[in-house]
Amino acid sequence: MKKEKKPKKKKQKKAGKRTVSREYSNMMLIFTGLFVLMIGYLVYFQVAKSRETINNTYNARLDTFEKEVVRGKILAQDGQVLAYTKVSEDGTETRYYPFDCTFSHVLGYSDYGKTGIEELGNFQLLTSNAYFVEKFINELREQKNMGDNLVTTLDVDLQTAAHDALGNQKGAVIVMEASTGNVRALVSKPDYDPGLVRSEWSRLATSEDSILLNRALQGLYPPGSTFKTITLLEYLREHQFEADDYSFQCEGKIPMGDSSISCYHGTRHGELDLRLAYAKSCNGAFAEMGQELSEGPYQELAKQLLFDSDLPLSFPYSRSSFRLKESDSEALHMMTAIGQGNTLVTPMHMAMITAAIANNGVLMVPRFLDRTESYTGSTVVERYPFTEYGRLLSTSEAEVLREYMRAVVEDGNAKTLLSDAYTAAGKTGTAEYSSDKSRSHAWFAGYVTGEKPDLVVCVLVESAGSSSEYAVPVAKRVFDAYYAGE
Amino acid sequence: MVNVITELSKYAIVLFLALYTLIGFQLVRKPGEEKRAALRQQDVLLFVMHLLANLILYLNTKNEKILYFCGAQMILFVVFLVLQHLIYPKADHLLNHNMLVLLSVGFLMLARLSFDKAERQFELAVLAAGLTFLVPWIIRRSAGKLRGYYWWYGALGFGLLTAVLIAGSLSFGAKLAITIHGITFQPSEFVKILFVFFSAGMLSKTQDFRRIVTATCAAAAHVLVLVLSRDLGGALIFFVVYLVMLYIASKQPLYFLAGLLSGSAAAFLAWKLFSHVQTRVLAWSDPFSVIDKEGYQITQSLFAIGTGSWFGLGLGQGMPYKIPVVEEDFIFAAIAEEFGLLFAIFLIFVYLCSFYMILNIAMCLKDAYYKLVAAGLGTLVIFQAFLSIGGVIKFIPSTGVTLPFISYGGSSLLSMFAIWAIIQGMYLKRSDEVAGNEKGKETKKEKTEKGRKKNR
Question: Closest Cα to residue A160, out of A78, A242, A239, A96?
């Protein structure tokens, strides 16, 4: 039987040999492809993702790094030391912060949990890229290696100016470069000494003033008149940027349902064009605008400016919110337009919107870290990229808004910012948050142009009073400090 | 000093495994006269690696038991290799080596994580090696006689799976195991093998459409029962193994594509319908948003892999115990953490190398039935490795599958030993086929030799 079959089989074999093994080679190919993809993903993870992934408070492994490495220093952009670890003779390590409270919230602490840059750069600070021979000798002697240094984008002069200007008041100041996203200063008050967190923990954690809360990133406030920039943009969009025939007669207040909205201190602004209505921050004019704006595009614009969205920040932050529906009352429409509705915003978010306006509509991702160096500074381990987040508004829209913001300084509520050294622009805001009208948050969100790169400053002073009295002077001190060196 | 030794040997171990896999791939590609020498080199690398890693583990834990344990493993490895050489001189020793490398890594990792579990795993390995030692001989002698009973295999397998569904105990939300007289075992690990024999029996005879429909329905029934038991990994393995076998038997790429499409549709449906599937997908797509609960395991695994980096933290230096179920489904993360990513990648190559070798064997076999059995088992192993590793590294959603020969677990280990033994039996069959050929056809000798280079 076998012999009879053989010749047949042979023929089949010749014709079919290729097809027989093709299925097998296809399977090898498919599974090889699958595994190549998987290994590729693993390599990609290690190269591109692992750093940010493992730098997580849930990763207990990082704590063991402390047994091998002395935590590196944190430096200001010009190299001044903001934080360092001293090892005493018996081996105990102490973290020192030479500027005490000044940098508290942005540096964070490392002693009792980790926050701020101490958390953000934890992995780098606990990794040693010292010369390998030195590391080898240290291993032999069973001594710790020196962790890498983190060079931040922070500026000691600007931080000090902002910190001092805010004084004893609660609030936040953010200073950043519009074109690079470099954060030059970040203050939140009340603050604390990062070096004393462990010993003062119970006081800090239980304080009614929420000392440990980073107000710049996590504090949510009604935006008040600073929101008029967004209302203005929506109004301009709905009127094809034709503002010539706009006119408003300000009588000091405008009826709203049973009550009324009045301008700050009941000032009568009289006859106003759009530019002056914005510059003088006339509540009546903007409340009236609020009655006619269409909710859909308004909401859309807010979304475009990152309300109710995730922000590109590597620190914990709160999401700003904006809500307006067609079914909402007339009063709410009017209140929303002047930044008093249900809108809430963080100072950092306001700074980012302002930065986008100053940077022709393009938002740069706020950048806190510039580079990692070996502890001697001899080798740069890693430079952190400048990242463009994207376009929040068009170039021409940004340009128009800049003219309006300039008007606030030239003819409006921030005249004190007029200077020969620089050209400042911005928007003031006084946000009421309770029935007590004398207690309101003072806002300023603006920027300065001149010979140096454009610098954005956003100031919030909690329950202080009017913007021009409390927030604008803080911005002025920062601007002055920026141009003082010249 | 210990630090420095640990540090240096880390690189050495990676290098040894790299060389080992390189030789392995060469052995798959051109098994010629130099095969013997290459196998010797693998022997040396295998044992040096094993000794060095155990030494590091001992230095870091100062646990003397490690040394005895290492000795016991060496004895097992040597006895196994010697007996294989004596009784099955024509067996494929590359596959045997690969198995021992995987076992060695598994023992090391387990000894580092939980010495008790490592000891238990070792006992089970000895048992499994003993139980499966005669399998190649049985396959060689009587696989032909046993092939007719494929309906019995299918019925038995299906019955076991159904029993688990009804009476199984719940672990991590899935019904996987049955406990009888205090011994817990996972029937699906063995049903996999039965299923391959069943499908091979169904598909190898004829390929008329009715038969294919019958076989597909039977396979679908298996998969369905597993889905109902919430054993998603098991269901996927059965599905893919069947698909590959169907494609190889029918030579119809269309079947394969249609199967993949309907499988994807079913997966999509499962995701829409079942919350436990959604949970797994969420833990995969955005584990950090649910880091306290569903995402905890996978994020700990990523911390382990990322912190270990290319060369690892060194044996005993990391924190693999932070990962839940690390000894079973997530052992790959522990390996990556302490041995390093490069080592882990070479380990993946060991699986791939075994897969090529098994398909090679399948390809060279003549009998359609044996071909299908070998290809099915090869697919089973490689796809299971893929599911396990892919789930641990967040490449795909985790399906809770063990890593062949490495993960802790008796059923998994025993079934892998059995698969290896069956494939060795197939390999011996192939030698017989070739030998028979030569005897029968003296005149065709030249051509036969050309086609069957592997025959010595």
Answer: A78
Cβ under 8 Å to A: B residues 243-272? 244, 247-248, 251, 253
Token couple for B99: 């198995």
Note whether A38 contacts B390, CB cutoff 8 Å: yes
Instruction: Using CB atoms, pick whichever of B253, B318, B393 lies closest to residue A45.
Output: B393
In a domain, B86, yes or no: yes
**Within a domain: residue B333?**
yes
Three-class SS of residue B145? Answer: helix
- Pairwise CB contact (< 8 Å): A56 & B303: yes
Render pLDDT for A420-442 as a digit per residue (tens, 0 to 9): 889 999 999 988 876 666 678 99
Query: For A21, which residue in chain B has the nearest alpha carbon?
Result: B363
- Give dist(CA B426, CA B17) in Å, integer: 28
- Integer CA distances (angstroms), B429 to B58, B86, B143, B366, B433, in order: 43, 17, 9, 10, 6
Q: How far is CA A52 from CA A48, A281, A319, B74, B309, in A?
A: 9, 43, 21, 41, 13
B55-74, pLDDT tens digit by residue?
A: 988 988 888 888 999 999 99
Q: In the 8-state DSSP scheme, what is residue B179?
A: E
Interchain CB distance below 8 Å, A38 and B313: no
Does B7 sit within 8 Å of A54, measured CB to CB?
no
- Strand, coil or helix: B67: helix
Domain count across chain B: 1
Contact B393 A34 (CB under 8 A): no
Residue A305's closest CA among A404, A403, A227? A227
> How confident is the model at residue A300, as a pLDDT?
93
**Nearest chain B Cα to A23, which residue?**
B248
Q: Structure tokens of A231?
A: 């209302």
A339: left (phi over 0), alpha (psi -120 to 50) or beta: left
Position B183 pLDDT exceeds 60: yes
Domain that holds residue B98: 2-144+296-347+404-451
Report the alpha-carbon distance of residue A340 to residue A53 in Å, rounded: 39
Cβ-based contacts of B352 with chain A (< 8 Å): 31-32, 35
Domains and CATH numbers, chain A: 218-369+388-484 (3.40.710.10)
B383 vs A: CB within 8 A: yes
Per-residue pLDDT of A213-252, as tens digits, reads 999 999 999 999 999 999 999 999 999 888 888 888 888 8
Burial B356-385 (b: 16+ CB within 10 A, else e): bbbbbbbbbbebbbbbbbbbbbbbbbbbbb
Percent with pLDDT over 70 in chain B: 91
- The answer to whether position B429 is within a domain reads yes
CA-to-CA dists, residue A127 to A60, A64, A149, B139, angstroms? 15, 11, 9, 56
- pLDDT > 90? residue B388: yes
Q: Look at residue A86 and give its three-state secondary structure.
A: strand
Closest-CA residue in chain B for A28? Answer: B356
Q: Does residue B56 belong to any structural domain of this protein?
A: yes
In angstroms, what separates the C-alpha of B324 from chain A's closest C-alpha?
Answer: 14
Q: What is the pLDDT of residues A349-395, one digit of tens each?
A: 999 999 999 999 999 999 999 999 999 988 888 899 999 999 999 99
pTM (2 d.p.): 0.72
Residues of A in contact with B382 (CB under 8 A): 31
